[in-house]
Specification:
alpha+beta, Beta-galactosidase, Chain A, domain 5, 21 strands, elongated, 22% strand, 649 residues, 15-stranded antiparallel β-sheet
Length: 649
Amino acid sequence: MDKNSLIGLGLIVLVVIGYSFFTRPSKEELQRRQRYQDSIALVRQQKQAEQDAIRAIEQLEQGAAAATDTMSAEQLQMQIQAQYGALAPSAKGNGDFYVVENDVMRLTFAQKGGTIYSAELKNYKAFGDTLNPLCLFRGTEALLDYTLITANNRILTTSNLYFTLQPIETDTAGTQIVTLRLLTDGDAYTDFVYSIPKDDYMIGFAIRNHNMQNVLAQNQTTLEMHWAQKIRQQEKGRKFEERYAQMQYMFTNRDIETLSEQKNDREKENGRIRWIAYKDQFFSTVFISEDGFEGTTLESVVLNRHSGYIKEYNTLTAVPFDPTGAKPTNFRIYLGPNHYNTLKAYDKDAQRYEELRLKELVPLGWKIVSWVNKILVIPMFDLFTSWGMHIGWIILLMTIVIKLIILPFTFTSYRSSAMMRALRPQIEAINEKYPPEKMQERQQATMALYQKAGVNPMAGCLPMLLQMPVVMAMFWFFPTAIELRGQSFLWADDLSTYDAIISWDRYIPVISWLFDNHLSLFCLLFTATNAGYTYITMQTQATGNDPSAKMMKWMMYLMPVFFFFIFNNYAAGLSYYYFLSLLFTILQMMIFRWTLDDEKMLEEMAKKQAKKAGKPKSGFMQRLENMQREQQARMREQIKEQAKQQRRR
């Protein structure tokens, strides 16, 4: 080995030794890592001990109290006592269930875990089940678990402990008080207290301690909470239900956030959260904390379409906790429909609920669109519903009222189109006089014609823009209106989902993806009516021989086909409304055509042209023409300059 190789090898050894020396962890870092590893090992040991104790309890319950191959009954009992400490009396139970009902729901409470085992809504049915009430969750579909740290540093979870039901009380307002008690070997205990009003979807929930400061760790000032739930598929249209199934939450400053409804999503929030909602298209489970959730991790997972579930939601968080019992940990739980007025009522009761903004669980569109829904559409719908009319006739009546409201805009738009149609011969003459190469002269002459005839080309567009908030409001309202759910009309058995006139089970490439294995009749009627409306509208347009206008015309004819692909999965009530709306629009256009005579409009425009012939032009038109002349002059100068440069070359 030569001298250079030895020097290089020595330098490499020095670099390695130096790197190891300067990057080695400090004594404090080594101690911190060791504490971390020790804590992880301790948690694992305690979890394993809890599992061993649970298996021991199962052995005792299965009749292995006398002896086992490896451990006697006394030894098993000692292991349970060592693991659970003062909470050993709650380490086993019969696994009983307790059913409590009010006017709108039926709740089943489980002895194991002390939580709600199932929640059923009496006034609603799941799709395909007309006999039983709609069930939000049952059994292992939902989990509510709290972590307790005992005085002897054992980690226990409430889902593995057994609670004892106390006598159910009823107050003067008819509210039922259900208390599930976690017993100890002394006079200390923890109560899970549920307050169930007589006719409300909102229930109270409180965790109250009594002398638990000697049973639980004194430094436990927060309670770790794990809440999970699988969202059942409750509607016929899974694809549409997935779109509205979201996990939403509101911070204490009343800002609302949403996890993605299209894909798996996970967020970690450090801010204090007021409520968390596990939302489906028409129903929600909302957990509300009086003091707020802290250090919260939220997760939404999209489940397989063959699982019978839409999504699975998970929340890991912490809430304030006082083992002494001086201050209970208070919650409220909403188990009910996404009905706008029902949710809005909680904001009105400011004394009890503050401004929870639960009504935001009902999506009503962007700001201006949502205001149209809140001010016009929902009050009108509620008024007609209060008359006891069938939902199909209510939609018809709403269509008539809305068409009357926007009638002035529709008339202005049609009149502008009719005036443009009356000027079509003169516009075509201008187009023939000025070829496409002289586009500026053509535009100038066309604008001069409009100005003389008193026609505003934008007059037809502005009314359409003013109608758009109403059209979009209906687009958002019908798919989220729970009043349509389960309501039949004509051939549609449920106006809140698609009305399949033809359906098939076999997957057909492209076709199944486009149509989702069905064809909706109301959507077909809407598409056919839309095509007819487009044909009538295009007849009133002054397109001439302009190729771009012809291309636009064919694109307009293709729009109804695109709409069919979009609305085939939407609520039948929405397609029914658009079908009626277009029918009334066509009827209005026919009436307008009978009342507006093209020859009379031409005479009126000719009179306006004659009156304006001797009058000076308006300041705006004069400035516009001056700008066009200056632009033309600059273009001519540029052309001359380019020609000079070419001659020089």
